[in-house]
Amino acid sequence: MKRIGLTTTVPVEILIAAGYTPIDLNNLFITSEDYLKYIDIAEREGFPKSMCAWIKGIYGACIENGIDKIVGVMEGDCSNTKVLIDVLEIKGIKVYPFSFPHSHKIEDVKTEINKFMDIFEVQIKDVENVRKRLSRIRGFAKEIDKLTYIYDKATGFENHLYQISLSDFNGDLDGFEVELKNIVSDIRERKSSNVKIRLGYVGVPPMTADLYEFVEKFNAKIVYNEVQREFAFPRADEASNIYEQYYNYTYPYNNEFRIKEIKRQIKERKLDGIIHYTQAFCHRAVEDIVLKQKIDIPILNIEGDKLNKLDARTKLRIEAYLDMLLDLKGEV
Q: Which of 256, 218, 263, 242 lies closest to 123, judged by CA?
């Protein structure tokens, strides 16, 4: 199948129906053993140091891996994506546009998805057949989520990894389905960890994935990954068609819609606190003000930049935050 790069989660059902293999450039960037080389490629091309590392990493991953077609999200994602797309087009890369409408009206979502289907010359019946196929695979991620927050068997990192990987299914639907089946089977056999502090993680997926292992050193666990869970489309089974599925996807729309779902998960998962991760030089950092006004459990904001490991200062802040949560619970 032909490869096509993604700058964020888009209706992959359409791309797969059109015969493409979606490749999430974010995952290609951050999972590389030498991920910094992708940032260096972008900075040598003139990208400023005062720009989000994700944007530079996406650019470098696209160029270095010979991706010659991408889907660029023009509305509902990073504000820097538009200029990224301009630069990629100069490099001769074919860009297919897609937008999540700011209005968040079902009729507008339908219009954008229909435009996307027209671009790739696919019919709704073919897209719905793919959607059913993907729902089966996504079901395993839902099971891993339950094994995290209900049965306390999966780790926070596993919860993060296998949900975020559903943005492109690791470029191999059949292989990834088998992998998920095996992972679910292995996790079910574990004993529950019964941690004292139950955490939520909100914000863009982290550069610093060691966060999950670090908090578990203090009898705490992240049992809710907000955006990663949205990438797995946890409510897809409730949607009667692809239009409803992407209408009910919280990430690209307004904060009121997003926060309503966060509050629901706080209650369902019995969260003690939330870690809000923001990326340096990202406009989404300002959302911390809104979250702290609207959510009534303690929130710790941490910021990442180029490093894929937590720095000493951030570790101290997290440790102090977890101590505070233990005090609030009356634990010693």
A: 242
Say if CB 38 and CB 101 are below 8 A apart: no
pLDDT digits (tens, 9 = 90+) for 284-322: 667 778 888 999 999 999 998 888 899 999 999 999 999
Give, to the nearest 10 degrees, the angle between helix 255-269 and helix 287-294.
50
Tokens of 227: 């955006």
- Residue pair 221/215 in contact by the 8 Å Cβ criterion: yes
Tell me the angle at which helices 53-64 and 36-44 cross, rounded to the nearest 10 degrees.
90
Report the alpha-carbon distance of residue 236 to residue 133 in Å, rounded.
Answer: 12
| Tokens matching residue 63 | 């160029």
Domain closes at, from 97, 120, 143: 120
Same domain, 209 and 171: yes
Number of compact structural domains in the chain: 2
Per-residue pLDDT tens for 202-248? Answer: 998 898 999 999 999 999 999 999 999 999 999 999 999 999 999 99
Q: What are the pLDDT digits (tens) for 245-269?
A: 999 999 888 888 999 999 999 999 9
Phi, psi of 189 (to 5 degrees): -80, -10
How many DSSP H helices and E strands does the chain contain? 15, 8
Q: Which of 266, 275, 323, 278 lies closest to 300, judged by CA?
A: 275
Q: Which of 33, 77, 80, 34 is nearest to 59 (CA)?
A: 80
Closest CA to 204 of 232, 180, 228: 228
Query: Could you tell me if 253 and 104 are in contact, meaning their C-beta atoms sit under 8 angstroms apart?
Result: yes
Bridge partners for 99 per DSSP: 75
Tell me: do 95 and 155 sit in the same domain.
no
Statement to judge: residues 105 and 142 lie in one domain = no
Which residues form the domain of 301? 124-329
Cα distance between residue 259 and residue 265, in whole Å: 10
pTM: 0.93
Q: Are residues 143 and 258 in the same domain?
A: yes
| Among 67, 100, 120, residue at a domain's last position | 120
- The verdict on 30 and 95 lying in the same domain is yes
